[in-house]
Amino acid sequence: MSDLFIQSIGFIAVALFISSYQIRSNRMLFLLQLLGSALFCLQFFLLGALSGCLSLAVNILRNALMMRYKEWKWVRSKICPAVIALMFTAVLIFTWNGPISLLAFTASVTSTFAYWSDSPRSIRMVNLVCASPCWLLYDVLVNSIGGIVSESITIISILISFLRFGWKGLEHDKQTDT
């Protein structure tokens, strides 16, 4: 398959991730990230980066569950992120390819627990200081140009969201979280 085609998949995903951090609603943030993750999952598969591919597959499931966080009481349970973390652990073991595999694992597990905090500010902070840097390094190592661009822009986008909404403006607000 053409390298240009494989790399273009990542650039389509980039647009979805950029948009996700400019929305106050957690539900829309999760939907846009779910779609972006699906495209990066496909790109990682085509690049032969199995740890990233399967971690993103679990991220897709996680984001789908988070879209129903308010409606499904069992999703709000503290057991749910722990089960998802176990799924990431299974992916890590199954796809172990040395320390590079820890990057996808760390990014995915830390962001999962942040998402269960139900705090837009916490989600953005964990992505800013841990998840995005881990994915950025992973992208460099597997040669995902779209991933490199995406994580770089995501970091900038998160910083912009803090400027737009302010630190207090990103506190949880049930009225704007639909």
Structure description:
This protein is mostly helical and 178 residues long. It has one domain (3-166). It has 8 helices and no strands. The protein has helices at 3-20, 26-47, 50-66, 73-76, 79-94, 100-115, 120-142, 145-169. Helix 1 runs antiparallel to helix 2 (26-47), helix 1 (3-20) packs parallel to helix 8 (145-169) and helix 5 (79-94) packs antiparallel against helix 6. Mean pLDDT is 88; it is low at 173-178.
Count of individual domains? 1
Instruction: Give the low-pLDDT segments.
Output: 173-178
Q: Tell me, rounded to a whole number, the average pLDDT.
A: 88
Number of helices: 8
Helix % is: over 70%
> Based on CA inertia axes, which overall geometry fits?
globular
Q: What is the element string, with H for helices and E for strands?
A: HHHHHHHH
Q: What percent strand?
A: under 5%
Structural class: mainly alpha
Concise summary:
The protein has 178 residues and is mainly alpha-helical. It has helices spanning 3-20, 26-47, 50-66, 73-76, 79-94, 100-115, 120-142, 145-169.
What secondary-structure arrangement, pairings included, does this model have?
Layout: H1 3-20, H2 26-47, H3 50-66, H4 73-76, H5 79-94, H6 100-115, H7 120-142, H8 145-169
Helix pairs in contact: 1-2, 1-8, 2-3, 3-5, 3-6, 5-6, 6-7, 7-8
